[in-house]
Structures are given as C-alpha cells and as structure tokens.
Amino acid sequence: MARRILLSPPDMTGIEQKYIQDAFNQNYIAPVGENIDQFEEELAKYTNSKYAVALSSGTAGLHLALIAIGVVADDLVFCSDFTFAASVNPIRYVGATPVLIDSEYDSWNMDPELLEKAILAYQSKGKQAKAVIVTHIYGNGANMSAILAIAKKYGLKVIEDACESLGTITKEGMTGTLGDIGVYSFNGNKIITTSGGGAVVTNNRNYANQIQYLSTQAKSKVPYYLHEEQGYNYRLSNVLAGIGRGQLQSLEDKIKRTEAIYQTYREMFAGIEGLAMIPTSPTDQRPNRWLSAFTHPTMNPFGLIEFLDSKNIESRALWNPLHKQPYLIQAQTDFFYQEDRKHRPVSEQLFQQGICLPSGSSLTELEQEYVLSCVKSYFMGR
Questions:
Q1: Active-site residue set
Q2: Whole-number pLDDT of residue 343
Q3: Can you tell me which residues form the catalytic site (predicted)?
C-alpha cells in the first residue's frame, strides 16, 4: 500500500470550510464569536443536554469539571485504570488523590463491584471520597446504571470521561449525559475533531456557568480587569468551533461507517482461533466504535505492531494501565482489582494481549481489505 493507513485520521467533509470562512469574514478569530455560540447550542441539542461549554481540550474539561463539583486538595476521586493518563492527571491538578479501579471483562470499562469495594475500604479507614470519573473506553459505554446507583448510595458526584464515546447510546441514554458532568474530546484522532478541543455538557446551570467563567481566566463582568479567583485559558477558538460545527453534522454518518468497519473485522477474523474483538458492552444500544480493537491470548502485540508498520499500516497497543505508570507508582497510587482471580488484573491482560487497528470513518474498503490480509498473514506465519 503506497499511502500509509492511519489509525484514526481526521475525516473532513468540506462543510467545515464554510464556518471557518465565516469566522474570517466576521474577523472573530479569538475565543469568542458565532461559531462558539452555535457549536455549544448544537452540541447541547445533539446530546439532549441543557448546557454545553466548548473548551480547548477534553483534559481541560475534566479539570474544570472537578473544580465545579467542589473537588479540592486531598479529596479522594475514583477513576478508571484502563485509560489514557489525561483521565487521571486533572485529579492531580487540583491536588486530589486518584484511586484506580480495574476493568470488567465484558466492556473493558470500570468494574462497578470493585468501585464499591474501594469505597468501603476507604470508609473503613474513616475516609469519604468526593467523586468518580468513569471513562467510556474506545467508544464502549460503561455500566452506568450500576455506577450511578453506587454513587448515589455513597454520596459521590459522577463525571463521565466520554472523550472517546461521543454518540454512544446506552440503555440509560447517551454517554456524557448520565452523570453530573460529561466531557468530550475533539482531538485530531477522535470520531469528530476541532483539530484540538473539547467540551463539557451538563444539566446543571451553576456547573455550566462556573466552567465557562473559569475557562476565560475567571474575569469578572465589570468594565475593568477584576479576577476574584484563579482562572484558566481553556476556551475554544471561534475558528476551531467552526470546524466542530461542520463535523457534528456528519457524526451520525461517521458512526455508521465505524460500525461497518468493526463488523467487517469481526466477521473476517472469525476463523482465527482465540482472537476476540472488543466486546460490545452489555449496556450499549449503539456504541460509536471509535476504535476497533482485539485481543489474542498468545499474541505479542508489539510484534504485530512492528509487522504492520513494515506494511505501512499504523496500529497501536491498548492502553498501558495507569497503575503501571512510573509517576503514579511513585505517588503510591492505590489500585483495586479482583485479587482472588488466578490471573493478572484485567487491565494488564488487555494491554499485554491487545491491539487497535485502523478504524477511522475515512478508511476505505480497499484499505481495510489490505489490513485484514496483513493481519491474517501475520497469524499464519507465526
């Protein structure tokens, strides 16, 4: 294949150019303007949320969400172990203490049973947690009905890290809209992009107002510069919001395409003994299939990644668990997993046995056929 096949490149439609040009014509290039206002309104409508605030990244969204719900230094916050470091870093930004929770097999997301185990373990020490950040991994919805019930039982606020799952619909509703605050990412590799950007959605007006206020350096609405508290430069630009407006219009088509890509992988890999595609979460009605991934019990994922790279195909290992990250080990971060299992934690098994394949909505059928043939040849040649 002459052209390198990427994991999840931006899929631009051309619609975006109109909104970008509007920003130039109106000379609204900074983080203010019609595109931002309309993008927030359109995102809120799509997710059936009362409020949306466009930000510079999903990480910024998680940071401000924690501040909005009142997390402060030394508070405990439970979070997923099998995820990207950006899911946990904002907890440390506010001086709080992250507690990592292992995954369940049938969704690869946070195990609700372990969440409750962790809550009770800390309560036995006289410590009460403040919140939980639940990541919806690779577009799979977490078991939110169980997690929300546990959070309500123990008085925890819930932030959804839906950075990978915009458009995923579960039995409870759309991911990002089920907890107190939901956070989306529009990074260049996500199912829709604003180049770099993110957003929060919520039905709580106070949360939305505070997040918007803090994202613009916490500047008071007076005719001079007055800052009564520390703020942040986290607002999305009007130009990038224009990209988001165009991208949002094609989101449903993109999800249909990523679903077709996933199903093709699943059907064509059915003959490889031991290979298992990322499962559809039992609670999902329509996952967005952001990335198609699979595991194999005897596969060396890094050997396959190297092989595919030699064939001009980008692939990627699954998330290296957070409890294995040196900076979190050094901080003596607690990690809860099923210690009575004969095997390693689920997150470790996934990392050591899994790989993500090209899955972007712009992947052509010919390109996918080439990826399939290369993966099959790798397994046949072992």
A1: 190
A2: 73
A3: 190 (proton acceptor)
